[in-house]
Amino acid sequence: MSGSMKSLARRFHAPLIAVLLSAVSVTACTKAGPQVVGYVVDETALATVKPGQDAQKVLEVLGTPSTVSTVGSQTWYYISQDTTRTFMFDKPEIVNQRVIAVQFTKAMRVEKLANYGMQDGVLFDFLSNTTPTGGNELTFIRQLMRAAGAGVV
Length: 153
Prior knowledge:
The protein has 4 helices and 6 strands, in the order H-E-H-H-E-E-E-E-E-H. The chain has one domain (30-147). The chain is of the alpha+beta class. The model has no long low-confidence stretch (mean pLDDT 74). A hairpin with a 6-residue loop joins strand 2 and strand 3. The longest helix is centred in the first third of the chain and has 27 residues, at 3-29.
């Protein structure tokens, strides 16, 4: 190859590599699409979990929970989110969210199964068709006020 051909090849080689790298970079950042994050709910397996069932059987059927309760009753939570984003660098938008809550008795038998999700922007239990309410749960401030009223503080 002559000297002029080599310099011509070098002149076109660098821009060609730059264009190819740019094209690869841009395609990597474009469409991201839907993605499931967390526990993937298997409806058939979920239907086999019944009240009175042993915790070991629940582990075999549903697998390891996403998280467990640390206070109060023993409850296992299986959390799932369907997200989507237009570009990979965008913040994911939550399209759907489900929380399967398996509540156990002290003997580690299934007491209640709840399937919470988002319906019209409100937390909703799909199994009992109810929306949880605050009920008698007292806030920290109310507990202090109640204690002060009783003369404890």
